[in-house]
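This protein record is not my work; I was only asked to verify it. Would you go through it and say whether the fold makes sense for this chain? Here is the record exactly as it was handed to me.
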Amino acid sequence: MLLEIDGLVVRYGAVEALHGISLGVEAGEIVALLGANGAGKSTTLKAISRLLPPSGGSIRFGGRSLEGLDPEDVVALGIAHVPEGRKIFPGLSVVDNLRLGATPRRDAGRAQTDADVDEMLQLFPPLRPLGAKMGWTLSGGEQQMLAIARGLMARPKLLLLDEPSLGLAPLVVKDVMETIARIARDGTTVLLVEQNAHLALQIASRAYVLETGRVALSGAASELLKSDEMRRAYLGSAVRVAAAIDAAV
């Protein structure tokens, strides 16, 4: 198991946001983390990347405990976190945003970084003609591609993606999901937090559904797609969005 979470508890002051959740991610998988707003999805990612130190439980990555590590130590171990809202640097160019993504790597000299930037521009073709453009000039979809590409510049073993489809047009969402699937096929494990449950389950191998800080459902993505309980609780609006995307293609 690449990532093992056991009994994870996270508090915001006196408020307990995660009530002892447990989950695992195997190398090479896309695992979706689903649920309504406030269920604890983003909190889980922040706990993994040590932006929110847990109050209880354990997180192990590649067999190593993350307890006591700083966020930069977690990145150095091979975990990259692409947060909700993209968080690119608006006053820096596309290329400079990408170069910053390589800074946690100890092996990233200028020549290697430039080669990796070129690789990212090949992986995300819409970004190639925008290399000199400032981040603030990009569309929402272009910013999301840049945020994912910047995360990949750290050469992570595990990529944490928080709501990559948020605020994007349906056709752009389809492109982003296809890119995430391609990233996994190329060897990067993905833990995907996503509101659009239907689309996430189409590219994921397994999924966990959080409900008020607890794991309510889990299983193979293909089985959850067919689950009546899942469909009633989580897939209603997502299915309509997915149908709109398919109709627009």
